[in-house]
Amino acid sequence: MDAARVGVITFPGSLDDRDAARAIRLAGAEPVALWHADHDLRGVDAVVLPGGFSYGDYLRAGAIARFAPLMTEVVDAAKGGLPVLGICNGFQVLCESHLLPGALLPNAGLHFVCRDQRLRIDNADTAWTTEYRVGQEIVIPVKNRDGRYTADERTLAELEDTGRVVARYLDLNPNGSLGDIAGICNEAGNVVGLMPHPEHAVESLTGPSTDGLGFFTSIVKRLVNA
C-alpha cells in the first residue's frame, strides 16, 4: 500500500508548517504541501493546520485565515469525515471556521507563553489520539499569545458530557483556558484542535520528549487500516 498522504496548509505567517511536515514524515506518511490560496486539497487523506500567525493575526487570531480559499475545501471535507488537526494557530482557525466550538482569547495576563507543558490525554478515541491511552501524561511545548480556550456554559458542559475534551493542562494552566482545556474534538472525532505543539516533541534531540509523535502515528495507522 502507498504511504498515507497528509496535507499541511501554509498561510502567510505560518511558522510550523515544516515542523509539521517533518513529524508526518517521521510517523511514516507523506507530507503534502498545500497553499492557502488554492482550491485543491490534492487528494490528501488528512490535513494539518500548523501553528504560526496566519495573516499576522490581524483582526483576531485565525479570523482572516478562516476565509482563505482552501479553507472552503477543508470545511466541506472535514464535514464529510476528512481527519483534520489544528495546532495552536490551526486550532484558532478551526474555531473561527466553526468546525470546533468556542474561541481562543488572549492569554490571562496578556503575555506570550513558551514552555514545556505537561498534559493529560482525556480522549484516546479520536482520529489523532488512538496511540495514547486515557489518562496518559505527556510533555510537549506550548507557545502562544491567544491560547485561552473559552466557551459558554452550555458548550462546556456538552464537551465534558460527551468526552470531547481531548487533552488538559496539568500542574499549571499556562493561558487561563476554562477547564484547563488544551484540546478538543468535534462530535465525530475526526477534527481535533490542540493548543500545545506535538510537532515539536517528535525527536529527543530537539524536543523535551517524543511524546508528540503519537498524534501523527495515530492518524497514519488509522489511514493505513481504513
Automatic annotation (TrEMBL):
Location of the protein in the cell: Cytoplasm
Active site residues of this protein: 88 (nucleophile), 197, 199
Pathway(s) the chain acts in: Purine metabolism; IMP biosynthesis via de novo pathway; 5-amino-1-(5-phospho-D-ribosyl)imidazole from N(2)-formyl-N(1)-(5-phospho-D-ribosyl)glycinamide: step 1/2
Primary site of residence: cytoplasm
PROSITE patterns, sorted: GATASE_TYPE_1
Keywords noted in UniProt: ATP-binding, Cytoplasm, Glutamine amidotransferase, Hydrolase, Ligase, Nucleotide-binding, Purine biosynthesis
Functional note: Part of the phosphoribosylformylglycinamidine synthase complex involved in the purines biosynthetic pathway. Catalyzes the ATP-dependent conversion of formylglycinamide ribonucleotide (FGAR) and glutamine to yield formylglycinamidine ribonucleotide (FGAM) and glutamate. The FGAM synthase complex is composed of three subunits. PurQ produces an ammonia molecule by converting glutamine to glutamate. PurL transfers the ammonia molecule to FGAR to form FGAM in an ATP-dependent manner.
Subunit details: Part of the FGAM synthase complex composed of 1 PurL, 1 PurQ and 2 PurS subunits.
Protein name (database record): Phosphoribosylformylglycinamidine synthase subunit PurQ
Organism name: Actinomadura keratinilytica
